Amino acid sequence: MNIAFLASYNGSSAKAITEACFDGELRASPTLMISNNPNSKALEWALAKGLKTLCLNSKNYPDPDELDCAIAQKLKDEKIKLIVCSGYMKLIGPETIAAFPNAILNVHPALLPKHGGQGMYGRHIHEAVKAAHEAQTGITIHLVNGEYDKGHVVAQKTIPLMPQDSVDDIENKVKTAEPSFYIETIKKILSGEIILPA
């Protein structure tokens, strides 16, 4: 199964998933890394690892519909079966979603539906968790459906918190657990233990 990644910055989960494929832990072929950011460390890393890399953004496709179509076409060209978002900061367009129904995964660093939606990304999420005095946070892997953080929940992992945990502590706990949980979830999808909606 060919896997593609969408990443805006470091793509730490994409890197971990790629290494898991190379190590034989995941029976999949990491094929393509797409970023909207020409300075993305994920692009540089993927190129060094032998993946195809593309920077697709509003500079080379000013029209959003054309950009969406270009992303969808590049994914089709590489016969991609599963798309993994790893810190991709752009909303995925309807053409791409229609071309890959129930095949685009995103990871959200909280327990959706809590602390999700537009504007809830990165440190903002962990600040909201702290402000709400949550006893736990976690990781949600969900399908992408065109609305921020509204897609079908595929898997969740709970991470207990202590009252004295700072925002940095919360962020570090989630970041530490995220790559291995993403790998574990993809492994279950590939084995059929998790069945995605048709």
Describe the structure.
- The chain has 198 residues and is α/β, with parallel strands linked by helices.
- It folds into two domains: 1-100, Formyl transferase, N-terminal domain (Rossmann fold); 105-198, Formyl transferase, N-terminal domain (Rossmann fold).
- The protein is 37% helix and 21% strand.
- It has six helices and seven strands, in the order βαβαβαβαβαββα.
- The chain has helices at residues 12-22, 41-48, 64-77, 94-99, 123-131, 167-191, and strands spanning 2-6, 29-35, 52-55, 82-85, 104-108, 136-143, 153-160.
- A seven-stranded mixed β-sheet has the order 3-2-1-4-5-6-7, covered by helices on one side.
- β4, α4 (94-99) and β5 form a beta-alpha-beta unit.
- α1 (12-22) packs parallel to α6 (167-191).
- The longest helix is centred in the C-terminal third of the chain and has 25 residues, at 167-191.
Distance from first to last alpha carbon: 17 Å
Total count of strands: 7
Write down the overall geometry.
Answer: globular
Parts with pLDDT < 50 across at least 5 consecutive residues: none
CATH topology of the largest domain: Rossmann fold
The largest pleated sheet is described as: 7 strands, mixed
Mean pLDDT: 97
Approximately what portion of the residues adopt beta-strand conformation?
15-25%
**What string, H for helix and E for strand, traces the elements in order?**
EHEHEHEHEHEEH
| Alpha plus pi helix count | 6
The count of domains is 2
* Structural class designation: alpha/beta
